Amino acid sequence: MKKDFFKSTSLIEYSKENYHSNPITSIDEIDFGTENKNIRWLNTYGTHHKSEFKAIVTKSLLDDFLLKLITEEKHPNKVLELDNALFVTIKVLKTETKNFQTEQMFFVLTPHILWSIQEEKGDYFEWIRERIRENKGIVRNKKTDYLLFLILESIIDNYEDAYDKISSSMETLNQGTDVKPTPEFTQNIEKEKNILITFKKAATSLRDIITKLEKVEQQKINKKFYSELSTQIHNLLNSIDFDLQEMESKINLIFSIQGHRLNEVMKTLTIFSVIFIPLTFLAGIYGMNFEYIPELKHHNGYFVLLGVMVIVTLGSIYYFRKKKWF
After folding, report:
1. Hey, how many other C-beta atoms are within 10 angstroms of the C-beta on 174?
2. Which of 30, 118, 147, 266 has the highest count of CB atoms within 10 angstroms of its CB?
3. Tens digit of pLDDT at every position of the chain (326 positions)
């Protein structure tokens, strides 16, 4: 089991002048102490290494409550300030899968070490590792709060890229005003709307985490980094809200078109009904089986009745046209 943990764990240690990234072969190599002033990024794939987690927490004299937090598999998004560390947990939307599953990620932050625990192997943080390795930008001049900032920024960038691709491929968003009130179109627009809502939930959760990080007092967090993230995530949420509003307007337009069509059908049926009601009334009178109906003996009675029916029909049509009912 330990071999699996060591294969799934990497440690990057760096400063302005130095960089080291060697395989871990022992828990003793993991030190959360403050004597070592280098910045260390410990990354573990898998949340099932509970005995190794316990050994690291115990050896590093971290808050005991941290052990309970990282051994629980499911967490809502939260930021907790512990005695000597900051604990952050995020449910990250996996945009690589079609059904948009979520992955739990834990972060344990101290001034000199960031421990990231990812539920599954694989991530999109390689560009951060490259910047550290090649000493690009200012990452090696900053502390762990900046490293956490880069990781969260990478998550947001991934959301933005994935959202741009998905929204540009959505038929209902790119059809303009060409709305087809068919069952297939309605089903498709509801499906795409659910995708947008899924993205909005993920982005909203991440925004809440960033807002909490801006309010952290105990750990040395440079809040200007997270203010930038807050602006970035708000822009993404605004884009999602705009697309959702556009989709809602199309859904409302579908209902309006369907309602208008139903009204047209009902109006046509009503007009026909109003025209035929007096005709049916006249036919009903002269269809009664009474022996003494004076008009029945009239030589031209049949034609007179037909003429009355024609006049009633034409009069009704003229009245409806004058009222602009059709």
Report:
1. 10
2. 147
3. 567 888 888 889 998 888 988 778 888 777 776 667 788 898 988 888 888 888 888 877 777 787 788 777 677 788 888 878 888 998 888 877 667 788 888 998 888 889 998 888 877 888 999 999 998 888 888 888 889 999 999 999 988 888 888 888 776 666 655 666 677 777 777 888 888 888 888 899 889 988 888 888 765 677 777 888 888 999 999 988 888 888 887 777 777 777 888 888 888 888 888 888 888 888 888 777 777 777 777 778 788 888 888 888 888 888 888 877 76
Q: What is the pTM of this model?
A: 0.76
Check residue 215 and report its DSSP letter.
Answer: T
Report domain 265-322's class: mainly alpha
Token digits of residue 16: 């302005």
CB 150 within 8 A of CB 128: yes
How far is CA 195 from each of CA 74, 78, 98, 199, 278, rounded to the nearest angstrom? Answer: 23, 24, 10, 6, 56
Structure token pair of residue 135: 């000493």
Pick the CATH number of 2-256 from 3.90.45.10, 3.30.460.20, 3.40.50.1000, 3.90.550.10: 3.30.460.20
Angstrom distance (rounded) from CA 275 to CA 311: 11
